[in-house]
């Protein structure tokens, strides 16, 4: 059932009691809201008993200043309204909480540092769709109360005490923050007590993704041979089958710590390590010597060993593709964007943090050494692969994901391979952010939040 969008007007508490709402008569008739009866007002985890007075020739909602303050609302906020007759509940929302890693209260114009502009974009997108968004950090979670101290935007950024949200978009950037007991307790509590939805619930480990997708016969064609590295025997076995291998930290990101291993002479191997500003190389007379050199690392960090691929390239710089897949207003996976990423000079990974550059799929393919016979339907095939992999993650990994960054590659024979799935895709990795413009990926995120919260 469509949920009407209304403007909330805040008026003096001396004129309107805290437990009375004034609502446009036509809205009340449309939503079949009974007049002047006790109802439960719901806004995120906030609950209040209220009665509703109809107002002729008016299509908004008037609430008292004191009630607005308790709800964390300001005048002029557009919201969706829904009346649930079974529980006699008047629900306003959706209230969306975006969980971010850190804030900088000493910078009131830029409280979230480099992602402040993205946060403003979300605020504008929410206003357009009748949703209310705030931003909060792990340290702002109030223990035991179910509420948080979050940031809202109203002619500037302000901190307010706010109810727990209907929907949480987890945008924490480290596992350490995500695994804090207070964060996990809060997320479990709001799910169980208030039925809140939390999406992009956790980081995905590389090994977890490849193990899960191996369960699906139709997805195996995208998977390079991969294992968690456990022994020299495994390393030797992979080395006997492939001239190039990649060792990737199971919990790595941004291309950090990836080792490229390639045959060097008859018995030797050359290892390339990603370092700040480029690549460091070292040669080893045997696989055993290489394994010995990294044995200390293996005690503290797990690595995925993966067959090396002969990726398409441009002037010796490997090319791969980042597809942003998102669930839409019906809860179905869609592909929002795909961009080509060309590795920087002297790099074998394409991450922007390592000097990679973005290009459209068409331009990336045009610059590449991909044979002409495989070029015609590249976009459609990448899109189909991304969609199938996103559905596979949903089917085989139980946590709730609303968006996934899927890194794909093409080899010189035109075959598509999966490189990595990122459950916290950076919004900087798809399309550039322009002030005042709302990107399709941001619009889609709000549409999905409305879908899962019933608004």
As a percent range, the share of helical residues equals: 25-40%
According to DSSP, the number of beta strands is: 25
Low-confidence stretches: none
Q: Report the radius of gyration as a whole number of Å.
A: 26 Å
Q: Give the amount of beta strand, in percent.
A: 25-35%
Biggest sheet descriptor: 7 strands, mixed, barrel
Shape: elongated
The side-by-side strand order for the widest beta sheet comes to: 1-5-2-4-3-7-6
Class by helix and strand content?
A: alpha+beta
Mean pLDDT over the full residue set:
92
Intertermini distance: 9 Å
| Alpha plus pi helix count | 11
Any overview of this molecule?
There is one protein chain. The protein has 455 residues and is α+β, with helices and mostly antiparallel strands. Helix content is 26%, strand content 33%. The protein has eleven helices and 25 strands. The strands form five sheets. Strands 1-5-2-4-3-7-6 form a seven-stranded mixed β-barrel. Helix 3 packs across helix 11. The relative contact order is 0.11.
Condensed summary:
With 455 residues, the chain is α+β, with helices and mostly antiparallel strands.
Question: What are the main properties of this structure?
Answer:
455 residues; alpha+beta; seven-stranded mixed barrel; six-stranded antiparallel beta sheet; elongated
Spell out the blueprint of helices and strands:
Blueprint (H helix, E strand, L loop, with lengths): L4 E7 L8 E5 H7 L7 E5 L2 E10 L5 E4 H7 L5 E8 L4 E5 L1 E5 L16 H14 L2 E5 L11 E6 L3 E6 L4 E4 L4 H4 L2 H14 L2 E3 L6 H8 L12 E3 L3 H10 L2 E6 L9 E6 L3 E8 L2 E7 L2 H14 L2 E5 L5 E2 L2 E11 L5 E10 L14 E3 L1 H7 L10 H19 L6 E8 L5 E7 L17 H14 L2
Parallel strand pairs: 1-5, 2-4, 3-7, 8-9, 8-12, 12-13
Antiparallel strand pairs: 1-6, 2-5, 3-4, 6-7, 10-11, 14-19, 15-16, 15-19, 16-17, 17-18, 20-21, 21-22, 21-24, 22-23, 24-25
Helix pairs in contact: 3-11
């Amino acid at each position: 059932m469509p949920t009407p969008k209304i403007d909330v007007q805040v008026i003096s508490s001396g004129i309107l009691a805290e437990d009375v709402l004034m609502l446009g008569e036509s809205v009340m008739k449309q939503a079949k809201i009974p007049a002047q009866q006790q109802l439960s007002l719901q806004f995120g985890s906030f609950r209040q008993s209220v009665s509703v007075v109809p107002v002729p020739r008016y299509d908004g909602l008037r609430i008292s200043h004191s009630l607005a303050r308790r709800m964390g609302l300001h005048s002029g906020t557009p919201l969706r309204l829904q009346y649930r007759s079974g529980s006699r509940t008047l629900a306003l929302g959706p209230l969306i909480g975006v969980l971010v890693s850190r804030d900088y209260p000493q910078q009131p114009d830029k409280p979230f540092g480099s992602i402040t502009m993205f946060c403003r974009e979300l605020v504008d997108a929410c206003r357009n769709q009748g949703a209310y968004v705030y931003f909060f950090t792990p340290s702002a979670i109030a223990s035991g109360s179910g509420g948080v101290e979050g940031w809202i935007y109203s002619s500037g950024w302000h901190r307010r005490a706010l109810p727990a949200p209907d929907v949480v978009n987890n945008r924490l950037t480290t596992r350490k923050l995500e695994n804090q007991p207070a964060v996990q307790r809060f997320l479990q509590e709001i799910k169980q007590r208030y039925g809140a939805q939390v999406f992009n619930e956790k980081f995905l480990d590389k090994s977890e993704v490849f193990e899960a997708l191996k369960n699906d016969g139709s997805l195996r064609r995208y998977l390079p041979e991969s294992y968690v590295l456990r022994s020299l025997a495994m390393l030797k076995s992979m080395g006997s089958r492939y001239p190039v291998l990649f060792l990737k930290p199971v919990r790595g990101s941004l291309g950090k710590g990836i080792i490229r291993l390639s045959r060097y002479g008859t018995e030797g191997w050359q290892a390339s390590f990603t370092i700040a500003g480029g690549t460091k190389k070292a040669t080893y007379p045997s696989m055993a010597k290489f394994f010995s050199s990294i044995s200390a690392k293996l005690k503290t960090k797990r690595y995925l060993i993966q067959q090396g691929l002969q990726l398409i390239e441009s002037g010796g710089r490997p090319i791969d593709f980042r597809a942003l897949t998102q669930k839409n207003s019906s809860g179905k996976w869609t592909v929002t964007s795909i961009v080509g990423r060309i590795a920087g000079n002297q790099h074998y990974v394409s991450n922007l943090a390592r000097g990679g550059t973005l290009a459209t799929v068409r331009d990336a393919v045009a610059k590449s050494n991909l044979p002409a016979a495989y070029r015609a339907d590249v976009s459609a095939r990448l899109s189909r692969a991304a969609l199938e992999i996103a559905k596979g993650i949903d089917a085989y990994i139980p946590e709730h994901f609303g968006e996934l960054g899927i890194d794909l590659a093409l080899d010189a024979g035109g075959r598509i391979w999966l490189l990595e799935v990122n459950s916290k895709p950076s919004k900087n990795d798809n399309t550039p952010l322009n002030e005042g413009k709302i990107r399709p990926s941001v619009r889609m995120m709000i549409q999905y939040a409305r879908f899962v919260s019933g608004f």
